[in-house]
Design goal:
By secondary structure, the protein is an alpha/beta fold. The chain is built from 18 helices and 20 strands. It has three domains: 9-102 and 172-368 and 376-459, TIM Barrel (Alpha-Beta Barrel), CATH 3.20.20; 107-157, Oligo-1,6-glucosidase, Domain 2 (Oligo-1,6-glucosidase, domain 2), CATH 3.90.400.10; 473-554, Immunoglobulin-like (Sandwich), CATH 2.60.40. It has helices at 28-33, 35-41, 76-88, 107-113, 117-120, 172-187, 216-219, 225-235, 254-261, 294-310, 327-330, 338-350, 380-391, 396-406, 409-412, 443-447, 453-466, 468-472, and strands at 9-12, 45-48, 52-53, 65-69, 92-97, 125-127, 146-149, 154-157, 192-195, 244-248, 270-272, 316-317, 355-359, 474-478, 485-492, 495-502, 509-511, 521-528, 539-541, 547-554. The protein has an eight-stranded parallel sheet. It has a five-stranded antiparallel sheet with strand order 14-15-16-20-18. Strand 7 (146-149) and strand 8 form a beta hairpin. The structure holds 1-deoxynojirimycin (NOJ). 1-deoxynojirimycin binds at residues 58, 61, 98, 160, 196-197, 248, 322-323.
């Protein structure tokens, strides 16, 4: 595999990618059929979200068997076929490993419920009375983080849904069982792992009430986290060259993320953090309506870019995934400036220091679906919060608007392949409705249009491979306080890359810092989102959502 700093990862949510057998659910054969499309885009690694045996309470993040494929998605043979074909076409497969919790349908948990003390120690059980949970911690999906089991007179911890009991990483037998799972998939040809909420796996020795928050301070980047990750690395992927690993880090810090991803620490290749995506949460509350805070967004991106570089850490850089609304509807303009803003957002993220992740359909500029009825939603978190918000007294209209903006289903609607029924995703009835704009936004149309969002992504991916400054250059913010422009400089071996992005429909005139000595460079437009972009000058007027990257090659 190419160096992960030069790679681009494409995230596939198999359930919504392509349905090869007409049952309304995407499947592994569907992914294999679409490999030529992905090869054309030019991505290096395919991250597949979980397709293991699961009751699907949380769309596969509730795993009942880590080494078996849910028949709804296909067979082990289908998976092997997919890995082999992808390799032949120059792409590797990254799997999603959910080790903070299992499903309550997992045989380990079933044995624990049956009274087996050995398996009870695979989870976090605490004796207690029905009236009072061990702590006041809250589940991230709403309600208490503890569930009472009458027959055992004990509670178990679930930081997510009640059907997702947390695993006990302090137990070496559990850890070994997990290492066997990872090694099993390495033997199947998998070359990468995305580790679900992995910075939550280390719980404290003592379980105490949280006087102010939901309990996260006790288990986020918990006491043994770095020890556990080093052991996981040593026992599994660390034994193989060229593995690419990414940890999903919930509410983390730069200092911890440096440790997770600095190569000297031998933990992971890179990390996802989510701070930049909380800039439209009112007082930290996701389930609220608020325009995004642009200056906060820039500050967070700048702090993480600079901080991680200083500590030789490595970011996974992204706007979208299966838990986030569509970025063009969120930080762009999904109507009047759909194309311009989708391309601008792509440039802003792909030219950062870090490995870019593209979530399926992002390369087409897919938008939120704007569902108007609760029945159209499927996601457990959205449905739980619908009821919580209604109970708090919010009106139906307001709650539906919150879901339209915040629900995870915004990104989970089926991929648009063409303008036929259901966007060409399935010949059956799709498990989740297809967004209504599939006739305008779809892969077939994008491939036929040389100016499409798709080809902009394709160009960004190939630039990363061609120009070392993108993969290896340093990062410096400029115009940090500008209220509409997000701009930065990348620097490598005396050359510069200047990236200017207008996040609004206004036309600001900017002045580049004097420290950039334009006369010292040959300059060229590397990529932009308007047909003709101006040559580089000290003062530039940007058009709505305009984005220009200039390459400044040092005169020698
Ligand atoms: C993060 C995953 O991305 C999300 O989809 C899931 O619900 C939670 N972790 C729990 O596994």
């Amino acid at each position: 595999m190419t160096d992960f700093k030069k790679s681009v990862v494409y995230q596939i949510y198999p359930k919504s990618f392509y349905d090869s057998n007409g049952d309304g659910l995407g499947d592994l054969k569907g992914v294999t059929e679409k490999l030529p499309y992905l090869q054309r885009l030019g991505v290096d690694v395919l991250w597949l979200t979980p397709f293991y045996v699961s009751p699907q309470r949380d769309n596969g993040y509730d795993v009942a068997d880590y080494c078996q494929i849910d028949p709804r998605f296909g067979s082990m043979e289908d998976f092997q076929g997919l890995v082999a074909k992808a390799k032949e076409m120059g792409m590797e497969v990254m799997l999603d490993m959910v080790f903070n919790h299992s499903s309550d349908a997992h045989p380990w948990f079933q044995k624990a419920l049956g009274g087996d003390p050995c398996y009870q120690d695979f989870y976090i059980f605490k004796k207690g009375s029905k009236e009072k949970p061990p702590t006041n911690w809250l589940s991230k999906f709403g309600g208490s983080a503890w569930a009472y089991v009458e027959a055992l007179g004990a509670y178990y911890l679930h930081l997510f849904d009640v059907s997702q009991p947390d695993l006990n990483w302090d137990n070496p037998r559990l850890r070994n069982a997990i290492y066997q799972v990872v090694n099993f998939w390495i033997d199947q040809g998998v070359r990468g792992f995305r580790l679900d909420v992995v910075n939550l796996i280390s719980k404290p020795q003592e379980f105490l009430d949280d006087p102010e928050e939901d309990g996260r301070r006790f288990y986020t980047d918990g006491p043994q986290i770095h020890t556990f990750l080093k052991e996981l690395n040593r026992e599994t992927f660390g034994k193989h060259p060229n593995m690419i690993t990414v940890g999903e880090m919930s509410s983390t810090t730069i200092d911890n993320c440096i440790k997770y991803s600095n190569p000297d620490e031998k933990e992971l290749s890179m990390v996802f953090n989510f701070h930049h995506l909380k800039v439209d949460y009112r007082d930290g509350d996701k389930w609220s309506l608020m325009d995004f805070d642009f200056l906060a967004l820039k500050n967070i991106l700048n702090d993480w870019q600079v901080g991680m570089e200083q500590g030789n850490g490595w970011n996974a850089v992204f706007w979208c995934n299966h838990d986030q609304p569509r970025v063009v509807s969120r930080f762009g303009n999904d109507r009047q400036y759909h194309r311009e803003s989708a391309k601008m957002l792509a440039t802003a993220i792909h030219l950062l220091r870090g490995t870019p992740y593209i979530y399926q359909g992002e390369e087409l500029g897919m938008t939120n679906p704007y569902f108007s009825r609760l029945e159209e939603y499927n996601d457990v978190e959205s449905i739980n919060h619908y009821h919580i918000l209604r109970k708090q007294g919010k009106g139906e209209k307001e709650v539906m608007e919150i879901l339209q903006r915040k629900s995870r289903d915004n990104s989970r609607t089926p991929m648009h392949w063409n303008d036929g029924p259901n966007g060409g995703f399935t010949e059956g009835i799709p498990w989740l409705a297809v967004a209504k704009n599939y006739r305008e936004i779809n892969a077939k149309k994008a491939l036929e249009d040389a100016d499409s969002v798709f080809y902009h992504y394709q160009k960004l991916i190939s630039l990363r491979r061609e120009l070392e400054i993108i993969a290896y250059g340093g990062y410096r913010p400029i115009l940090a306080n500008h209220p509409e422009i997000y701009a930065y400089i990348r620097a490598y071996q005396g050359n510069l890359l200047l990236v200017i992005n207008n996040f609004y429909d206004k036309a600001p005139r900017i002045s580049l810092p004097q420290a950039i000595k334009l006369n010292n460079y040959h300059t060229q437009v590397l990529i932009s989102n308007y047909p003709a972009s101006p040559d580089l000058q000290r003062k530039i007027t940007l058009r709505p959502y305009e984005s220009i990257a200039y390459y400044l090659e040092k005169k020698r």
